[in-house]
Design a protein that fits this description.
By secondary structure, the protein is an alpha/beta fold. Helix content is 24%, strand content 19%.
Protein backbone atom coordinates (compact mmCIF):
# COMPACT_ATOMS: atom_id res chain seq x y z
CA UNK A 1 0.00 0.00 0.00
CA UNK A 2 1.19 3.50 -0.86
CA UNK A 3 0.36 6.81 0.80
CA UNK A 4 -0.60 8.76 -2.33
CA UNK A 5 -1.83 7.50 -5.68
CA UNK A 6 -1.74 10.13 -8.44
CA UNK A 7 -3.78 9.30 -11.53
CA UNK A 8 -2.32 11.04 -14.56
CA UNK A 9 1.29 12.13 -15.19
CA UNK A 10 0.50 15.40 -16.93
CA UNK A 11 1.81 18.75 -15.65
CA UNK A 12 -0.23 18.63 -12.43
CA UNK A 13 0.66 15.00 -11.76
CA UNK A 14 4.38 15.56 -12.32
CA UNK A 15 4.45 18.59 -10.02
CA UNK A 16 2.50 16.78 -7.30
CA UNK A 17 4.75 13.72 -7.53
CA UNK A 18 7.76 15.99 -7.10
CA UNK A 19 6.41 17.94 -4.16
CA UNK A 20 4.82 15.05 -2.25
CA UNK A 21 7.92 12.85 -2.56
CA UNK A 22 10.13 15.62 -1.13
CA UNK A 23 9.12 14.18 2.23
CA UNK A 24 10.88 10.80 2.50
CA UNK A 25 8.11 9.71 4.84
CA UNK A 26 5.60 9.80 1.98
CA UNK A 27 5.31 6.98 -0.53
CA UNK A 28 3.98 8.15 -3.90
CA UNK A 29 2.68 6.15 -6.87
CA UNK A 30 2.24 8.04 -10.16
CA UNK A 31 0.11 6.26 -12.77
CA UNK A 32 0.01 7.18 -16.48
CA UNK A 33 -2.11 5.62 -19.23
CA UNK A 34 0.40 6.61 -21.89
CA UNK A 35 4.03 5.72 -22.32
CA UNK A 36 7.34 7.32 -21.41
CA UNK A 37 8.40 10.52 -23.16
CA UNK A 38 11.13 8.75 -25.10
CA UNK A 39 10.23 9.79 -28.65
CA UNK A 40 12.77 12.24 -30.13
CA UNK A 41 9.98 14.40 -31.58
CA UNK A 42 8.92 15.21 -28.02
CA UNK A 43 12.23 16.85 -27.14
CA UNK A 44 12.98 18.63 -30.43
CA UNK A 45 11.03 21.92 -30.38
CA UNK A 46 9.73 21.57 -33.94
CA UNK A 47 8.79 17.94 -33.37
CA UNK A 48 5.36 18.84 -32.01
CA UNK A 49 4.18 19.42 -35.61
CA UNK A 50 4.52 15.67 -36.17
CA UNK A 51 2.64 14.72 -33.01
CA UNK A 52 -0.75 16.40 -33.39
CA UNK A 53 -2.27 13.23 -34.81
CA UNK A 54 -1.26 9.90 -33.38
CA UNK A 55 2.03 10.08 -31.53
CA UNK A 56 1.55 10.36 -27.76
CA UNK A 57 -2.14 11.29 -27.97
CA UNK A 58 -5.48 9.58 -27.36
CA UNK A 59 -6.77 10.09 -30.91
CA UNK A 60 -10.08 11.53 -29.79
CA UNK A 61 -12.58 13.48 -31.88
CA UNK A 62 -15.42 15.74 -30.80
CA UNK A 63 -19.10 14.96 -31.12
CA UNK A 64 -20.81 16.90 -33.94
CA UNK A 65 -20.70 20.60 -33.07
CA UNK A 66 -24.12 22.16 -33.62
CA UNK A 67 -22.73 25.68 -34.03
CA UNK A 68 -20.27 24.48 -36.67
CA UNK A 69 -22.80 22.81 -38.97
CA UNK A 70 -22.35 19.51 -37.11
CA UNK A 71 -18.72 19.18 -38.09
CA UNK A 72 -16.54 16.75 -36.14
CA UNK A 73 -13.07 17.95 -35.10
CA UNK A 74 -9.89 16.14 -34.20
CA UNK A 75 -9.29 16.82 -30.50
CA UNK A 76 -5.67 16.23 -29.54
CA UNK A 77 -5.19 15.21 -25.91
CA UNK A 78 -1.84 13.96 -24.67
CA UNK A 79 -1.28 10.34 -23.69
CA UNK A 80 2.31 10.40 -22.42
CA UNK A 81 4.33 11.29 -19.35
CA UNK A 82 4.33 15.08 -19.15
CA UNK A 83 0.86 15.33 -20.67
CA UNK A 84 0.16 18.32 -22.87
CA UNK A 85 3.48 19.90 -21.92
CA UNK A 86 5.20 17.06 -23.84
CA UNK A 87 3.37 17.60 -27.15
CA UNK A 88 2.22 21.23 -27.29
CA UNK A 89 3.76 24.16 -29.17
CA UNK A 90 5.60 25.27 -26.00
CA UNK A 91 4.11 28.79 -25.93
CA UNK A 92 4.45 30.19 -22.41
CA UNK A 93 1.65 32.68 -21.83
CA UNK A 94 0.14 33.05 -18.38
CA UNK A 95 -2.99 34.95 -19.30
CA UNK A 96 -4.05 38.48 -18.50
CA UNK A 97 -3.71 39.81 -14.96
CA UNK A 98 -7.25 41.21 -15.06
CA UNK A 99 -8.68 37.71 -15.50
CA UNK A 100 -7.11 36.53 -12.26
CA UNK A 101 -8.31 39.64 -10.46
CA UNK A 102 -11.83 39.05 -11.81
CA UNK A 103 -11.81 35.50 -10.43
CA UNK A 104 -11.03 36.93 -7.02
CA UNK A 105 -13.31 39.97 -7.03
CA UNK A 106 -16.27 38.82 -9.11
CA UNK A 107 -16.27 35.10 -8.35
CA UNK A 108 -15.16 35.36 -4.72
CA UNK A 109 -12.08 33.17 -5.18
CA UNK A 110 -9.84 34.51 -2.44
CA UNK A 111 -6.15 34.03 -3.15
CA UNK A 112 -6.56 33.88 -6.94
CA UNK A 113 -5.81 37.54 -7.67
CA UNK A 114 -2.86 38.18 -9.96
CA UNK A 115 -0.58 39.41 -7.16
CA UNK A 116 -1.43 36.23 -5.23
CA UNK A 117 -0.52 33.81 -8.03
CA UNK A 118 2.47 35.75 -9.44
CA UNK A 119 4.94 34.39 -6.82
CA UNK A 120 4.08 30.85 -7.91
CA UNK A 121 4.74 31.64 -11.57
CA UNK A 122 8.11 33.12 -10.58
CA UNK A 123 8.90 30.16 -8.36
CA UNK A 124 8.32 27.74 -11.25
CA UNK A 125 10.44 29.63 -13.80
CA UNK A 126 14.01 29.13 -14.84
CA UNK A 127 13.82 32.04 -17.24
CA UNK A 128 16.81 32.33 -19.56
CA UNK A 129 16.35 36.08 -20.16
CA UNK A 130 14.50 37.78 -17.31
CA UNK A 131 14.82 37.87 -13.53
CA UNK A 132 12.70 40.74 -12.27
CA UNK A 133 9.38 41.59 -10.63
CA UNK A 134 7.55 39.29 -13.05
CA UNK A 135 10.00 36.46 -13.69
CA UNK A 136 12.19 34.04 -11.78
CA UNK A 137 15.36 32.23 -12.82
CA UNK A 138 15.77 29.66 -10.06
CA UNK A 139 12.82 27.34 -10.76
CA UNK A 140 12.71 24.00 -12.56
CA UNK A 141 10.76 25.03 -15.69
CA UNK A 142 12.91 26.31 -18.53
CA UNK A 143 11.52 29.42 -20.24
CA UNK A 144 13.29 31.18 -23.11
CA UNK A 145 12.80 33.37 -26.15
CA UNK A 146 13.15 31.90 -29.67
CA UNK A 147 16.78 31.01 -30.30
CA UNK A 148 17.14 32.01 -33.96
CA UNK A 149 13.91 33.57 -35.24
CA UNK A 150 13.43 34.22 -38.93
CA UNK A 151 13.84 37.77 -40.29
CA UNK A 152 10.17 37.73 -41.32
CA UNK A 153 9.35 38.05 -37.61
CA UNK A 154 10.75 41.58 -37.63
CA UNK A 155 8.61 42.39 -40.66
CA UNK A 156 5.58 41.24 -38.69
CA UNK A 157 6.47 43.59 -35.84
CA UNK A 158 6.90 46.52 -38.24
CA UNK A 159 3.51 45.79 -39.77
CA UNK A 160 1.92 45.83 -36.32
CA UNK A 161 3.57 49.13 -35.47
CA UNK A 162 2.32 50.65 -38.73
CA UNK A 163 -1.18 49.77 -37.51
CA UNK A 164 -0.57 51.40 -34.15
CA UNK A 165 0.17 48.19 -32.24
CA UNK A 166 3.38 48.61 -30.20
CA UNK A 167 6.18 46.08 -29.86
CA UNK A 168 6.06 44.28 -26.50
CA UNK A 169 9.20 42.41 -25.41
CA UNK A 170 7.38 40.51 -22.64
CA UNK A 171 3.74 39.38 -22.81
CA UNK A 172 4.11 38.04 -19.26
CA UNK A 173 5.45 41.29 -17.85
CA UNK A 174 3.91 44.59 -16.80
CA UNK A 175 1.54 44.77 -19.79
CA UNK A 176 0.22 42.17 -22.23
CA UNK A 177 -0.88 44.23 -25.24
CA UNK A 178 1.31 44.52 -28.31
CA UNK A 179 3.18 42.28 -30.75
CA UNK A 180 6.35 40.42 -29.90
CA UNK A 181 8.18 37.14 -29.52
CA UNK A 182 6.47 34.40 -27.58
CA UNK A 183 8.32 33.03 -24.60
CA UNK A 184 8.64 29.25 -24.85
CA UNK A 185 8.95 26.36 -22.43
CA UNK A 186 12.41 25.48 -23.69
CA UNK A 187 15.88 25.27 -22.25
CA UNK A 188 19.06 24.85 -24.29
CA UNK A 189 17.04 24.33 -27.49
CA UNK A 190 15.06 21.44 -26.01
CA UNK A 191 11.50 21.24 -24.77
CA UNK A 192 11.17 21.82 -21.04
CA UNK A 193 8.09 19.73 -20.28
CA UNK A 194 6.70 19.00 -16.84
CA UNK A 195 8.33 15.59 -17.13
CA UNK A 196 11.76 17.08 -17.86
CA UNK A 197 11.42 19.89 -15.31
CA UNK A 198 9.73 18.16 -12.38
CA UNK A 199 9.98 14.39 -12.80
CA UNK A 200 13.31 13.58 -14.44
CA UNK A 201 15.45 15.16 -11.66
CA UNK A 202 13.75 13.06 -8.95
CA UNK A 203 13.26 9.67 -10.60
CA UNK A 204 15.86 8.14 -8.28
CA UNK A 205 13.83 8.87 -5.14
CA UNK A 206 13.13 5.55 -3.46
CA UNK A 207 9.72 6.70 -2.23
CA UNK A 208 8.47 7.50 -5.75
CA UNK A 209 7.18 4.89 -8.21
CA UNK A 210 6.13 5.83 -11.75
CA UNK A 211 4.12 3.32 -13.77
CA UNK A 212 3.30 3.92 -17.42
CA UNK A 213 0.89 2.17 -19.80
CA UNK A 214 -1.63 1.50 -17.04
CA UNK A 215 -5.25 2.57 -17.43
CA UNK A 216 -7.18 3.48 -14.29
CA UNK A 217 -10.82 2.50 -14.84
CA UNK A 218 -12.37 3.41 -11.50
CA UNK A 219 -11.75 5.12 -8.17
CA UNK A 220 -12.57 2.73 -5.36
CA UNK A 221 -14.83 4.43 -2.80
CA UNK A 222 -15.81 3.00 0.57
CA UNK A 223 -17.97 4.81 3.13
CA UNK A 224 -17.69 8.06 1.20
CA UNK A 225 -13.89 7.99 0.98
CA UNK A 226 -11.60 7.21 -1.96
CA UNK A 227 -9.39 4.34 -0.80
CA UNK A 228 -7.75 3.23 -4.04
CA UNK A 229 -8.03 2.69 -7.77
CA UNK A 230 -8.97 -0.10 -10.15
CA UNK A 231 -6.66 -0.46 -13.16
CA UNK A 232 -5.59 -2.64 -16.06
CA UNK A 233 -1.98 -2.78 -17.22
CA UNK A 234 -2.60 -4.11 -20.74
CA UNK A 235 -5.52 -4.21 -23.21
CA UNK A 236 -7.94 -6.91 -22.13
CA UNK A 237 -5.92 -7.52 -18.99
CA UNK A 238 -7.26 -8.46 -15.60
CA UNK A 239 -8.48 -5.61 -13.43
CA UNK A 240 -6.46 -4.98 -10.28
CA UNK A 241 -7.08 -2.81 -7.25
CA UNK A 242 -4.38 -0.73 -5.58
CA UNK A 243 -5.02 0.93 -2.22
CA UNK A 244 -3.94 4.36 -1.00
CA UNK A 245 -3.32 4.94 2.68
CA UNK A 246 -3.90 8.70 2.53
CA UNK A 247 -5.22 10.11 -0.76
CA UNK A 248 -6.17 9.36 -4.34
CA UNK A 249 -5.38 12.40 -6.49
CA UNK A 250 -7.05 12.71 -9.89
CA UNK A 251 -4.99 14.77 -12.36
CA UNK A 252 -6.08 13.28 -15.65
CA UNK A 253 -6.84 16.41 -17.64
CA UNK A 254 -9.92 18.41 -18.57
CA UNK A 255 -11.55 15.38 -20.21
CA UNK A 256 -9.89 12.47 -18.44
CA UNK A 257 -10.61 13.66 -14.88
CA UNK A 258 -14.41 14.05 -15.20
CA UNK A 259 -14.54 10.86 -17.27
CA UNK A 260 -12.85 8.89 -14.49
CA UNK A 261 -15.01 10.50 -11.81
CA UNK A 262 -18.21 9.57 -13.66
CA UNK A 263 -16.99 6.03 -14.32
CA UNK A 264 -16.51 5.83 -10.56
CA UNK A 265 -20.07 6.96 -9.81
CA UNK A 266 -19.14 10.54 -8.95
CA UNK A 267 -21.22 13.03 -10.92
CA UNK A 268 -24.83 13.95 -11.76
CA UNK A 269 -26.82 11.03 -10.33
CA UNK A 270 -29.61 11.05 -12.93
CA UNK A 271 -27.15 11.01 -15.81
CA UNK A 272 -25.09 8.23 -14.24
CA UNK A 273 -28.19 6.09 -13.76
CA UNK A 274 -29.22 6.67 -17.38
CA UNK A 275 -25.98 5.10 -18.63
CA UNK A 276 -25.95 2.24 -16.14
CA UNK A 277 -23.47 3.60 -13.58
CA UNK A 278 -24.42 3.30 -9.91
CA UNK A 279 -24.08 6.74 -8.28
CA UNK A 280 -21.64 6.90 -5.39
CA UNK A 281 -21.80 10.65 -4.89
CA UNK A 282 -24.27 13.00 -6.58
CA UNK A 283 -22.10 15.86 -7.80
CA UNK A 284 -23.84 18.04 -10.43
CA UNK A 285 -21.56 19.74 -12.94
CA UNK A 286 -19.05 16.93 -13.37
CA UNK A 287 -18.69 16.35 -17.11
CA UNK A 288 -20.34 19.67 -18.04
CA UNK A 289 -19.42 23.27 -18.77
CA UNK A 290 -16.17 22.65 -20.61
CA UNK A 291 -15.05 25.63 -22.70
CA UNK A 292 -12.53 25.67 -25.51
CA UNK A 293 -11.87 27.69 -28.64
CA UNK A 294 -11.13 27.03 -32.28
CA UNK A 295 -7.64 27.28 -33.68
CA UNK A 296 -8.09 29.42 -36.79
CA UNK A 297 -5.50 30.00 -39.51
CA UNK A 298 -5.08 32.82 -41.99
CA UNK A 299 -2.59 31.66 -44.61
CA UNK A 300 -0.58 34.03 -46.79
CA UNK A 301 1.81 32.86 -49.49
CA UNK A 302 5.31 34.33 -49.45
CA UNK A 303 7.12 34.98 -52.72
CA UNK A 304 10.61 34.48 -51.34
CA UNK A 305 12.54 32.12 -49.10
CA UNK A 306 11.19 33.69 -45.90
CA UNK A 307 9.68 30.72 -44.03
CA UNK A 308 10.60 27.21 -42.95
CA UNK A 309 8.47 25.60 -45.69
CA UNK A 310 11.43 25.09 -48.01
CA UNK A 311 13.02 22.83 -45.43
CA UNK A 312 10.47 20.19 -46.42
CA UNK A 313 12.79 19.41 -49.34
CA UNK A 314 14.96 16.39 -48.59
CA UNK A 315 18.40 18.00 -48.84
CA UNK A 316 17.32 20.96 -46.71
CA UNK A 317 15.71 18.67 -44.16
CA UNK A 318 19.06 16.92 -43.74
CA UNK A 319 20.81 20.29 -43.35
CA UNK A 320 18.25 21.39 -40.75
CA UNK A 321 18.91 18.20 -38.80
CA UNK A 322 22.66 18.83 -38.83
CA UNK A 323 22.16 22.44 -37.75
CA UNK A 324 20.20 21.27 -34.74
CA UNK A 325 22.56 18.45 -33.78
CA UNK A 326 25.73 20.54 -34.11
CA UNK A 327 24.63 24.10 -33.31
CA UNK A 328 21.21 23.77 -31.64
CA UNK A 329 19.86 26.29 -34.16
CA UNK A 330 17.72 26.35 -37.26
CA UNK A 331 14.18 25.12 -38.00
CA UNK A 332 14.34 22.10 -35.69
CA UNK A 333 15.11 24.39 -32.75
CA UNK A 334 12.02 26.47 -33.50
CA UNK A 335 8.57 25.94 -32.01
CA UNK A 336 7.29 27.25 -35.40
CA UNK A 337 5.17 29.71 -33.39
CA UNK A 338 7.74 32.41 -32.71
CA UNK A 339 5.66 35.59 -32.73
CA UNK A 340 2.21 36.71 -31.70
CA UNK A 341 0.23 39.57 -30.31
CA UNK A 342 -2.55 40.68 -27.99
CA UNK A 343 -4.79 43.58 -28.97
CA UNK A 344 -8.28 45.03 -28.91
CA UNK A 345 -11.12 44.23 -31.30
CA UNK A 346 -13.22 46.37 -28.96
CA UNK A 347 -11.31 49.61 -28.23
CA UNK A 348 -13.25 50.00 -24.97
CA UNK A 349 -12.28 46.56 -23.64
CA UNK A 350 -10.46 46.50 -20.29
CA UNK A 351 -7.91 43.99 -21.57
CA UNK A 352 -6.91 42.57 -24.98
CA UNK A 353 -9.69 40.48 -26.54
CA UNK A 354 -7.83 39.10 -29.57
Amino acid sequence: MTDYIIVGAGPAGCVLANRLSEDPGNSVLLLEAGGKDWHPYIHMPAGFAKMTKGIASWGWSTVPQRNMKDRVFWYTQAKVVGGGSSINAQIYTRGNARDYDAWEKEEGLAGWGYRDVLPYFKRAENNQRYANDFHGDQGPLGVSNPIAPLPICEAYFRAGQEMGIPFNPDFNGAAQEGVGYYQLTQKDARRSSASVAYLKPIRARKNLTVRTDVLVTRIVVEKGRAIGVELVDRPGGEKKILHAEREVIVSSGAIGSPKLLMQSGIGPADHLKSVGVTPVHDLPGVGSNMQDHLDLFVIAECTGDHTYDNYAKLHRTAWAGLQYLLLKKGPVASSLFETGGFWYADPTAASPDI
